[in-house]
Structure formats: C-alpha cells, structure tokens
C-alpha cells in the first residue's frame, strides 16, 4: 500500500462526512443512523439520493452543488477513491452530501424503509459472469425495494452495452415504468435542459471511455414495490473490450 493511500485513509477516519462500515465492521457494530439519516446527519427533511459505486464521488458532489435542497450519499468500498469526493465536499462546505464506505451487497443494512427517493448507478461493473452481482440485477432490485420509496427512480449511466442491454431486458420483462432511455447520451436530441445539465457531470472513468470513442448510455425507470421480479433469461453478447481475452459467452451461459 502506498504512502499516499495511508494518508488518505487517515484523513477518512477523521472526516465528519464519511462513515466507514465495511462488512467486517457492521457485523459487530450496529449502524444507528439507519432510518435516521435526515435526523442525525443532514438535519433536514429533504429527499435522499444514493450514488452506488460512487468511485471518486463526482456525481455525489456534482449533484450536491446543483441541488442544495436534496441530500446525497455516495457509497463505495474503495476508500482511497472516495477520499477525493469527500475532501472536495468538505473544502466547499457542502452540507448536503455524505459518503458511506461499505460493501454494496449489504446496502439495505444502512437505510430504513422508504428513506431513499432515488438511486444513481454510474458506470457500474457489468459483472458479465455473475448476474447476482449486477447492480441492476433483480437480486439488487429486491434489496433496493427495502429502502427505496414505492416507485422510486433508478438512474443507470454506463458505457457497457452488455449491462445496458441486460437492464433494458430486466425492465421490460418486469414491466417497470421506463421514463427515459438513450443509447448515445451526448448525441440525443430529446433530453430536456434540466436532465442534460445533470447528465453533463462526467466521472473519471466516463472521460476515459469518451476519449476512446465509446458511446455513453443512459436510462431511468421507476421501481414499484409490488410483484415478484424475474430475470428475462435472454442472451446478451459480452462487451469485447471488457472480456479480458476470454471466449465470448452469452449472458445465459455465464449464469450457469
């Protein structure tokens, strides 16, 4: 581990806007703010929006600047990356953004029923080999239902055709209300000005994909609470540039 990382972790331990509860910790230390984020941290009644897999926190911080009457929480397990957004938020005095360092697999342990209004999934790992690890998979959608308001909005922004196609099939198969969808975000002509302003925030990885000529895809849909969620079972071509020299396999084959 580099000296830079050690210094960042030391900073994170004293940052008032960072809460560190990886799986190894939360098993032994209860999270007292579950269901009480507004009361105990934000000290307001404003909506709460999560960015899951926030990386350097570009979206969490960028959205907090744009919407001072909304509370944002960036979630990731990578503390050295999260340090960037947490440090910036403190430097700018942003009181409506916080960071939670934990495993997203246990995200429902940190938020109470109906506590969250929206979720952003920005450039999530497509997890082409394991459907249960996909942040847009039905297993995670069931987790989100435990704390997202009924009909809450989920935003998906990705460079991965595999993840985007998979999510499209999942939304269609389960009849989830689709609010917007585009396969080429920065050339779409039917985006309203407010949405375009939000989507103009670019993450570190997004800038890399754009430089490589990759199309950026975006969709948003509602997640009602009622009814079981099912996988579509449809085959999806893998992303060649993310296949790590493995033989191309379908989404169905990878789930076996």
Automatic annotation (TrEMBL):
Q: Please provide, in alphabetical order, the Gene Ontology terms of the cellular component aspect for this entry.
A: tRNA methyltransferase complex
Q: Which GO terms describe its molecular function?
A: tRNA (guanine(46)-N7)-methyltransferase activity
Q: Which SUPFAM superfamilies match?
A: S-adenosyl-L-methionine-dependent methyltransferases (SSF53335)
Give the matching Pfam families.
Methyltransf_4
In short, the EC number is 2.1.1.33
UniProt cross-references to NCBIfam families, sorted A to Z: PRK00121.2-2 (NF001080)
What name does this protein carry? tRNA (guanine-N(7)-)-methyltransferase
Protein's organism: Marseilla massiliensis
What is this organism's lineage? Bacteria, Pseudomonadati, Bacteroidota, Bacteroidia, Bacteroidales
């Amino acid at each position: 581990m580099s000296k830079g990382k050690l210094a960042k972790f030391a900073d994170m331990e004293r940052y008032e806007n960072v809460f560190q509860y990886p799986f190894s910790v939360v098993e032994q230390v209860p999270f007292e703010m579950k269901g009480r984020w507004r009361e105990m941290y934000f000290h307001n009644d404003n909506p709460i929006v999560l960015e899951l897999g926030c990386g350097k926190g570009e979206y969490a911080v960028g959205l907090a600047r744009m919407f001072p009457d909304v509370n944002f929480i960036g979630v990731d397990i990578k503390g050295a990356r999260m340090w960037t957004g947490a440090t910036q938020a403190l430097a700018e005095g942003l009181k409506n953004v916080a960071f939670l360092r934990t495993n997203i697999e246990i995200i429902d342990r940190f938020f109470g029923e109906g506590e969250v209004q929206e979720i952003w999934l920005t450039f999530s790992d497509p997890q082409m080999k394991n459907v249960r690890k996909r942040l847009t998979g039905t297993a995670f959608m069931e987790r989100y239902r435990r704390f997202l308001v009924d009909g809450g909005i989920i935003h998906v922004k990705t460079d991965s055709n595999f993840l985007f196609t998979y999510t499209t099939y999942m939304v269609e198969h389960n009849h989830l209300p689709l609010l917007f969808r585009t396969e080429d975000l920065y050339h779409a002509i039917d985006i309203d000005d407010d949405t375009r302003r939000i989507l103009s925030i670019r993450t570190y990885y997004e800038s890399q994909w754009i430089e490589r000529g990759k199309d950026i895809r975006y969709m948003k849909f509602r997640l009602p609470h009622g009814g079981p969620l099912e996988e579509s079972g449809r085959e999806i071509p893998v992303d060649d540039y993310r296949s790590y020299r493995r033989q191309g396999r379908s989404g169905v084959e990878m789930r076996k």
